[in-house]
Write a structure and sequence with these properties.
Layout lengths: L24 H16 L3 E7 L9 E7 L2 H19 L5 E3 L6 E5 L3 E7 H7 L1 H4 L4 E3 L12 E5 L1
Helix pairs in contact: 1-2
Length: 153
Amino acid sequence: MRSRRTGSTLGADDDLGARLTAPDPDARHRAAIAARAAADKKGTEIVVLDVGDIISITEMFVLVSATNTRQVKTIAEEIELALKIEDGVGPRAIEGLGDASWVLMDFGDVIVHVFLAETREYYDLDRLWADAAVVEWETDGERGTAAQTAQSR
C-alpha cells in the first residue's frame, strides 16, 4: 500500500512519529567529550540536548558560549581534537570559522554549536529546542558517561 506521499513505500499503519535515527549510546559519549573539551577552554553555558526524538538528522546538540571570537575558534579546535583523540572521529563539516560568531560542527550523531554569547542570545536555540531533554555531561568515571536527566527543559 502506498502512503499519501507520492512514491513513498510507507504504509498507512507506519508510525510517522517514530524516531528515525537509531539511538546510539556512543552519541551521548561523544557529546560529553565535546562538552568537557569546551569546558576545558572556559566555554560557558554548556548544554547537551537529546534532540533525536524531535528531529531525524542527529541525536545530540551541544550548545556552548564564548566571550570573544578567538575563544570560539579555540573551543571549536579543542572539541575537534578531543573527539579525534578520544573517539577517533572527525567532523563531517565545520561552518562559521571565518566569522567565528557561531561555529557549527557536524559529527553526524552530534552537532556542536559554539557561539559568541550575544549571538547565542540572539538566535536563542535554547528556546527553540526547549522540548529536548537535557543530558548530564559531567563525567562519572574515567571514560565519562552522559546520563540523561529525568527532567525535560
